[in-house]
Amino acid sequence: MNARVYDQITERIIALLAQGTVPWHKPWKARTGLPRNFVSQKPYRGINVFLLLAMTYESPFWLTFRQALQQGGNVRKGEKSCPVVFWKKTTIKDEPSGEKKEIRLLRVYHVFNVAQCEGLKSSTAPIEIPVNGVLKPAEIVAHMPQPPVIKHGMVRAYYSPPEDCVCMLARERFEREEEYYSTLFHELIHATGHETRLKRTTLTESAGFGSDPYGKEELIAEIGAAFLCGHAEIVERTISNSASYINNWLERMHSDKTLIVQASAQAQKAADFILGQTVDEPKAGDGGNPKPLEPMEAAA
């Protein structure tokens, strides 16, 4: 089941890249634009953010086919759904020891935007605005728990794991404030992987850190910076949408179907760390008991 889910989600991202769209470069607003479930009002996380934003609907609210029925409405005939994923914990028996252990399986279910529905009752749940609200970029940096040292006046921007130091060009070297902070966010996401923080293996066990611009750690930093830019409501301006950039990620994702899903999950965790947020893992039954086998197209 896991392999099929990874394939389905990755192929969707690959299709977007092939069209010249880099999903993690799409801007969103933390307060109103973050996709969320219509019933529970809880925001979607990780790769789901980009999957749903890529659908380009104006409303941020989504729900399953079953939830639409429970809300007194229905999905219009012929409407296409968007897959979203969640991790489900399950217990298995380890062989040959016979000991039980807990593992996480990736599951998929399908959602529709409220614009694809009719007759829905208004949701009675309060809109859950993140505790942090919309933060200024400087506040995000200042309030990061266990922050690394940040040095300015360097010839390039990078993170040094041995020194646990983020090195930045002088602020005046950036044409716009957004460029400065999107670059700083990128390096701070790298810093969350340090052994004293999240101890992320893509950072701590990388022999040639910084040498692979299209490796998993770099993708984690790109996506994590996008999450932070969204919370600060700024648009990244240092990102590339060049053909060579897109082709490199296409090649990586064709060869590793787990890359985008796993990197997005790690990026969300890193962004949560910097924001000082503790978020419960989403459950399959949260907001209407969505199941993996929801229909991909509205029934006739």
Can I get a quick summary?
The protein has 300 residues and is α/β, with parallel strands linked by helices. It has helices spanning 2-18, 47-53, 65-70, 137-142, 177-192, 201-204, 216-232, 243-255, 259-275, and strands at residues 36-37, 61-63, 74-75, 82-93, 100-113, 117-118, 149-151, 158-160, 165-167. It has two domains: 31-118, no CATH class; 137-275, no CATH class.
Task: Kindly describe this structure.
It contains nine helices and nine strands. It is an alpha/beta fold and 300 residues long. The chain folds into two domains: 31-118, no CATH class; 137-275, no CATH class. The chain is globular and about 60 Å long. The model is unreliable at 283-300 (pLDDT under 50).
Structural class: alpha/beta
Q: What is the 3D shape?
A: globular
| β-strand amount | 5-15%
Number of contiguous helices? 9
Radius of gyration from the alpha-carbon trace, in angstroms: 20 Å
Integer tally of domains:
2
Distance between the termini: 28 Å
Low-confidence stretches: 283-300
Strand order of the largest sheet: 1-2-5-4
Helix content: 25-40%
Compute the average pLDDT: 86
Largest sheet: 4 strands, mixed
- Topology as H/E string? HEHEHEEEEHEEEHHHHH
Number of E-state strands: 9
Give the arrangement of secondary structure elements.
Layout: H1 2-18, E1 36-37, H2 47-53, E2 61-63, H3 65-70, E3 74-75, E4 82-93, E5 100-113, E6 117-118, H4 137-142, E7 149-151, E8 158-160, E9 165-167, H5 177-192, H6 201-204, H7 216-232, H8 243-255, H9 259-275
Parallel strand pairs: 1-2, 7-9
Antiparallel strand pairs: 2-5, 3-6, 4-5, 8-9
Helix pairs in contact: 1-8, 5-7, 5-9, 7-9
